[in-house]
């Protein structure tokens, strides 16, 4: 089968690799579409090292089950599915506590085991979710949307909160749209650069106001309680500078939810963070069924976020395209 294989930073190749077969408890999925996410881009740049090299990247996958292994119900064949990305052991203390995404023995799709930027991918039958009724585009957004749901479950947004989301990439826009839809805070602000080509996507995300990064401190003085900052800040810039800004604009006893996985160490003003007694919460993988429900009920709009599509044999070009400032989400269509 054909697959995109990352051998080293900036060394991505389209190759013929060995055909896959589902083992016991597994399903074979014919890939329809897969998204390029910030983690994939960090692997490509070399700022974040995957669990193995070479590797087939890609974990925002949708496809159709075409074969099943021993012990799997054959009625799954023909069902459109997406797959969770953490292949947990189910036996360790973390799994028994319900923290399966933190299983120390897990394999992770597209990170420590081969992912979905290929004609086929193998998953466990207990990790797939039917996405019948959703479009392929919507289905490929289940994984990143689930990560935003996880953020809100670990650190809920209250109705009285003034919320700022920094960043206008995929996660930043999904955060804006999800918060405005299901949390409905007192005020929702998008903090982006005035010259960003993604202004139209931000405006279509039900924000109360868009504030340029250079003007955010003046805005805080005029529009937040005692001029002390935001109750809740989402850092979704994918840049080391995002965390520095988040610490500056959060209010005392406020919450910073961090979503960037750029793989680079960050320096920020720890003293200011401590003096503010701010709360820092990281989050990543989340509940797929809740994300699917949001999409099925049309509570979060995602279709417009795909700004570029490329066939698998143009996957290298797709990665190059994903780094352009006007791109939100680039999809590879198989």
Name a few traits of the molecule.
globular; alpha/beta; Quinone Oxidoreductase, Chain A, domain 1; Rossmann fold; 334 residues; 2 domains
Task: Note the overall shape.
Answer: globular
Describe the biggest sheet?
7 strands, mixed
Which band does the percent of strand residues land in? Answer: 25-35%
Q: Within the CATH hierarchy, at the fold level, what is the topology of the largest domain?
A: Quinone Oxidoreductase, Chain A, domain 1
Task: Explain this structure.
- The protein is α/β, with parallel strands linked by helices.
- The protein has 2 domains: 2-141 and 302-333, Medium-chain alcohol dehydrogenases, catalytic domain (Quinone Oxidoreductase, Chain A, domain 1, Alpha-Beta Complex); 148-282, Rossmann fold (3-Layer(aba) Sandwich), CATH 3.40.50.720.
- It contains 11 helices and 17 strands.
- Strands 3, 4, 5, 8, 9, 16 and 17 form a 7-stranded mixed sheet that branches.
- α4 (142-154) crosses α5 (170-183).
- The mean pLDDT is 96.
